[in-house]
């Protein structure tokens, strides 16, 4: 590999160009634009024409990707012949970019021949600008030193793609060993960060930074739109049911659809059900002439925040670990897709539509089969480096204690959960019917028994309350939230559970009477995951 690529790894390259007739199509204007980009942190430039390359080479030693655009009757071609490549090299280009699509050109040199000559005669690396995976593979096989997604959306086969193709990037990352340059329709810092996390060597951004005319037109069009934006689809993938619905910006859910998850049948079955319920909601939206802004998906398991894939999952969703959920949904629905852990989605629901509205710092905990949670600090949901922040259920409560399904011992989830409730109920004399294998169903029965005054059930809940109070007291000491919000089927309907828990937490905290820790029952209902997932779309600014 050419050493020049190491300077670009994980960095930003700014494409400083202007269309013919644009007031900025001037060498000095391009030069000033490029210097401003460098001052902002650009690690390299992509420039059109030997004149522009030479002008910037006098100012900087940073890598420059040189191209020569040629407009003709057959359309636009990038660096059509060896003469153009040689002129760019003489001007100081570090890398020569070529059009390596499968289009037929009446003039110029075949790109395969150009790669060979540039290597042999100019001794420079070649960037292949492509539009499809097949073109990327062909370019790499022909000797291209890096491959860019530059022309996806600009060739006859890809004209329907009016946004960056995350699917293409994922496919290239799986099949190529040369560096991949993410370029074309990268319009936000979040897109750039996601691209590198999805396998791009570096990111090349042009219009979103350097074309004020294009940016002004976007703002002007946005102001012509109706003041209220459209709804989003929220999806909640649980171990037993997949729910979806159309959610407006007030959190109201309509056109709800749901179906059994079919979790025991594995990944393909789960994804098939997912597609079915989302398409039901999409069809209802179309029937009512509603334009959907995007899809938010809440799912059990650990979500990789960089690419929306499932980093890890238990057997509750068999085969779910490793599934590229975001890429799957984007390919099926042709909408922006956002993925979040289901417990974090419940936090987002509270933040946008529940008791968390107007709060800057709070913690939300969901208690059911396990313990999920999330932390909002400074008005933002904490995600952490890999999206795992707020895994409250897997904080250790008892060193060397009960085994947890995460592989550690003594986690909160081993004590406060469906399994923990059943254990305490049995320990205090509660009778479990022979052959009872559905823990969730029996936990619901214990909940009802406690509500009606059954002694073993009430004792079981009292022990769970003690464990949970310790964990919440730890949270108050760690992050000092304004309130801790509790939800989940395990505590639903128990009117005194939360107030009693709050009193215990206050007694445990140093200066607890003065700090007045607030523990409240969340407002999140059965569509909390749907609402929270949809909130991701609204947060994105679409």
Salient structural properties:
542 residues, alpha/beta, TIM Barrel, Nucleotidyltransferase, domain 5, 3 domains, 8-stranded parallel β-barrel, 5-stranded mixed beta sheet, 22 strands, 19% strand, elongated
Q: Provide the CATH architecture of the largest domain.
A: Alpha-Beta Barrel
- The total number of structural domains is 3
CATH homology superfamily of the largest domain = Aldolase class I
Mean pLDDT: 87
Strands of the widest sheet, in order across it, are 1-2-3-6-7-8-9-10
- How large a portion of the residues is in β-strands, by DSSP E? 15-25%
**CATH C-level name of the largest domain:** Alpha Beta
Radius of gyration: 28 Å
Beta strands, count: 22
* Number of helical segments with 4 or more residues: 18
Given the helix and strand composition, which structural class is it? alpha/beta
Approximately how much helix is present in the residues?
A: 25-40%
Give a short summary of the structure.
The chain has helices at 27-39, 50-57, 82-91, 111-122, 133-141, 166-175, 189-197, 207-210, 212-224, 267-287, 325-333, 342-353, 418-427, 439-451, 455-479, 497-508, 512-515, 528-539; strands at residues 12-16, 44-48, 64-67, 69-72, 75-78, 95-99, 126-129, 146-148, 180-183, 202-205, 232-237, 241-247, 253-260, 295-299, 302-304, 309-312, 337-341, 362-367, 371-377, 380-381, 483-487, 519-521.
């Amino acid at each position: 590999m050419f050493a020049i690529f190491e300077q670009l790894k994980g960095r930003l390259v700014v494409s400083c160009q202007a269309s013919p007739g644009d007031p900025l199509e001037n060498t000095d204007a391009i030069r000033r634009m490029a210097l401003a980009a460098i001052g902002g942190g650009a690690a390299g430039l992509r420039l059109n024409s030997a004149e522009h390359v030479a002008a910037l080479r006098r100012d900087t030693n940073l890598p420059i990707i040189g191209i020569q655009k040629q407009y003709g009757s057959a359309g636009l071609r990038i660096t059509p012949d060896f003469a153009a490549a040689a002129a760019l090299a003489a001007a100081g280009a570090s890398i020569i970019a070529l059009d390596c699509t499968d289009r037929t050109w009446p003039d110029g040199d075949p790109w395969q021949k150009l790669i060979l000559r540039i290597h042999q005669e100019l001794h420079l690396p070649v960037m292949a600008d492509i539009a499809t995976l097949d073109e990327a593979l062909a370019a790499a096989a022909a000797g291209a030193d890096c491959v860019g997604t530059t022309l996806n959306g600009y060739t006859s086969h890809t004209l329907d793609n009016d946004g960056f193709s995350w699917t293409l990037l994922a496919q290239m990352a799986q099949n190529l060993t040369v560096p991949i340059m993410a370029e074309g329709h990268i319009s936000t810092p979040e897109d750039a960060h996601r691209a590198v996390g999805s396998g791009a060597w570096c990111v090349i951004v042009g219009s979103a930074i350097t074309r004020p005319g294009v940016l002004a037109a976007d703002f002007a069009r946005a102001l012509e739109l109706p003041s209220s934006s459209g709804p989003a689809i929220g999806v909640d993938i649980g171990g037993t049911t997949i729910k979806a619905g159309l959610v407006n910006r007030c959190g109201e859910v309509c056109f709800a659809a749901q179906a059994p998850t079919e979790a025991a049948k594995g990944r393909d079955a789960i994804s098939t059900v997912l597609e079915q319920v989302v398409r039901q909601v999409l069809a209802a939206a179309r029937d009512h002439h509603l334009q959907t802004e995007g899809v938010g998906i809440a799912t059990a398991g650990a979500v990789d925040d960089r690419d929306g894939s499932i980093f890890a999952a238990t057997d509750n969703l068999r085969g779910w670990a490793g599934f590229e959920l975001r890429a799957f949904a984007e390919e099926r629905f042709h909408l922006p897709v956002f993925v979040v852990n289901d417990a974090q989605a419940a936090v987002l629901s509270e933040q946008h539509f529940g008791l968390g509205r107007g709060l800057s710092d709070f913690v939300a905990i969901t208690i059911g089969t396990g313990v999920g949670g999330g932390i909002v600090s400074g008005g933002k949901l904490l995600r952490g480096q890999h999206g795992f922040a707020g895994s409250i259920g897997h904080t250790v409560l008892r060193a060397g204690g009960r085994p947890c399904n995460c592989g550690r011992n003594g986690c909160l989830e081993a004590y406060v959960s469906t399994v923990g409730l059943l254990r305490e109920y049995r320990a205090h004399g509660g009778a479990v019917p022979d052959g009872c294998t559905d823990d969730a169903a029996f936990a619901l029965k214990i909940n009802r028994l406690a509500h009606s005054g059954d002694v073993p059930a009430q004792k079981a809940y009292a022990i769970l309350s003690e464990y949970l109070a310790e964990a919440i007291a730890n949270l108050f000491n760690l992050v000092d939230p304004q309130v801790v919000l509790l939800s989940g089927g395990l505590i639903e309907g128990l009117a005194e559970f939360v107030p009693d828990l709050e009193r215990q937490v206050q007694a445990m905290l140093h200066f607890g009477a003065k700090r007045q820790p607030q523990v409240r029952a969340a407002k999140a209902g059965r569509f909390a995951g749907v609402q929270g997932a949809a909130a991701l779309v609204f947060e994105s600014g679409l």
